[in-house]
């Protein structure tokens, strides 16, 4: 879906109107000029999205109000998206006020934070809206002053006519401008003339954050609001049998204990609908602590859940999925995967004649890599406010993809979408977890049942043990070398619970004559989902470790080896549909090589690991420098090179890359969610190890490839290659190769858990 | 009734004396700057000051706080100008921002006790505060910057 949408021409549709009290509002859309064929290619696109979906308001007192349509979870879109408008508008950034938009599928479009898409998706329409508003203000000034429009200039929120020495503020002309015809095809700025974009601007919510203002879903208050918590089964694969709430109901502050059913049996699940548990045992009370305490008094009998068939409709792709019964354990899952890996798999891509090449190889190198389920562990536990009546629904809280949850709510509540209002708060982390809006459905059903405004809160334990996780993956890589140690064939066969991780058309596909990619899958009842590029972060660990080992076997420098392959992929690409741009890929490797002083003698004291990866349209490479500290490998510094096109807000982008590096070090060394008989073995930070201060590097130096490519996304791309770079540095530190995450389990005698 | 002094203001609350201070602050009094992260003193999102010491309010029974002086993020400074708050903004530390109240409250005690902390001092003092977005490097830098600011103020 992402790729299809990216290919669409999105010339904006603009509308101007006069604000009550004077001033102008420019509203715009980015999907209005889709052809019918385009629309058919974009599954689940409501017609209304072709209309107006964003705005800029300019008031007579010269305040420029820009609506941020996309949910904010720390990627800084509250600041960077308005910067794009302000740039083309030639506004004074100090006069810009940013407002978080409510969910409005009619006016605000997809509003999806995920897939590293926020900036990429809004770049052009926001620029066009800003440029058009500026043009209209200039026209209004020209008419007022009775001078030729082409003699009018702007600077930082002011309009000038140099010849006559006249000038005015945008606000002075906003009302007049709102009555003018909207000019078409207004020229956008040359990126060389940017003065807001590419210049760091501070987080518009920074002061609120450091002073503890209510910003997050958990902070939201509503008159008469009760607190609800769900007592979910202790193990995935169990379901509610009976319960006795008599003691719970005697506890202070408790209003009710009841069960609700999430979806009807034949409910068709949308692409982001999940139900780890369908029968929910709910405790509602006055405040969080009372409810937490009262839950402990529940006497519940659970029983094994039977196998079930899920009807799914993933943006038009209908499929019945069997969710198996059973209490799964990580050890048996792992064994099952090893067995399955020996069986034939689906061929995802084949170039040349890999079978013959392997048969004739002088040497075959084969390595298998494993990765566990990973929990997102957002700092703000899952929560959502709901007030649902028979007539309407109000929902408020942290959510990445309101546009995908709303249709589900509409079906479950049997309310038309226009009667459902979703307000999005700032999110205390997301990482993909909050794209799955089951907790809105739960909150809405609880509110309707108890006929009161409620906030559903997950405890940390609920949050960590409920799912949703990065899938458990494995992949076996094989390389065939000829007698001269040339790489003549490459084979990857990957699988997972319940999906395989393979991106068949990514590097090194396209650079090797004989290439085979295969995938297999094993069903599971463990609920999985997006996790900061879930497949990519596994692949980047496995494939980039394998390439490192391969380079060593071939007697080549790991960076030069990759560059040779990329050179081949550029000059004489093998096969079709190679997803990546070999030049941009090579670009980040060269930049990180140069910036890290890769072969400089003074860096010999470091155990260095390198890795690069392409995902979500951008390119990232890291050099990780380890030292021994307290007899443990420690990542002391990291050099990062990123190509994500134009960097809108460089300091914030740097922050995000540094964060991705820390997250990658932490998850590769310590991350892992394991099960025993369906019971999550980690249920809080005491058992799920999260990277802490002393484990974070001293320095993370971030370099962006300077270019004028439209932004291609940054939330995910820097994260995956950290895994590979860490693994390769660990090899240099310990002399041991690392094949299974979390690496810390093999790094030290003591296990990470 | 339990009497609490929070940010130099007195509150009378009618709650179970065993209720953790965190939930009294958030659910009863309505000061939501102090965050719930884990409930078991593992993440530091709920750090407040009790008689000047950093405590984890999620495991601090409210009866322990009675008669004491409580400071929350809302009361860290009168004019939002604690050197740490200024440094946090100067270096644009937060990403999602959820853990930052707890980070600031932990850092404030560190900086009072040790006006010129080294990286190692910071790592040790802040070991109980998790940031899932990975802003640790910026927090370290911001603590150093705040220490500089504090020294300059003290000199003048």
Task: Describe what you observe in this structure.
The complex is a heterodimer of chains A (753) and B (156). Chain A contains 19 helices and 33 strands. With 753 residues, chain A is an alpha+beta fold. Chain A folds into three domains: 2-196, Aldehyde oxidase/xanthine dehydrogenase, molybdopterin binding domain (Aldehyde Oxidoreductase, domain 4); 222-309 and 382-457, Aldehyde oxidase/xanthine dehydrogenase, molybdopterin binding domain (Aldehyde Oxidoreductase, domain 4); 533-747, 2-Layer Sandwich (Aldehyde Oxidoreductase, domain 4), CATH 3.30.365.10. Chain A has a seven-stranded mixed β-sheet, sandwiched between helices. In chain A, strands 1-2-3-4-5 form a five-stranded mixed β-sheet. In chain A, a hairpin with a 2-residue loop joins strand 15 (308-314) and strand 16. The two termini of chain A are 39 Å apart. The model of chain A is unreliable at 1-12, 30-53 and 749-753 (pLDDT under 50). Chain B has 156 residues and is α+β, with helices and mostly antiparallel strands. Chain B has two domains: 2-73, Ubiquitin-like (UB roll) (Roll), CATH 3.10.20.30; 83-155, [2Fe-2S]-binding domain (DNA polymerase, domain 1, Orthogonal Bundle), CATH 1.10.150.120. Chain B is built from six helices and five strands, in the order ββαββαβαααα. Chain B has helices spanning 21-29, 62-65, 83-90, 100-113, 119-125, 136-155, and strands at 2-6, 9-13, 47-50, 53-56, 69-71. Chain B has a five-stranded mixed β-sheet, with helices on both faces. In chain B, a hairpin with a 2-residue loop joins strand 1 (2-6) and strand 2 (9-13). In chain B, helix 3 (83-90) packs across helix 6. The longest helix of chain B has 20 residues, at 136-155. The chains are: A alpha+beta (753), B alpha+beta (156). Chains A and B meet through helix 6, helix 8 and helix 17 of A and helix 1, helix 3, helix 4, helix 5 and helix 6 of B.
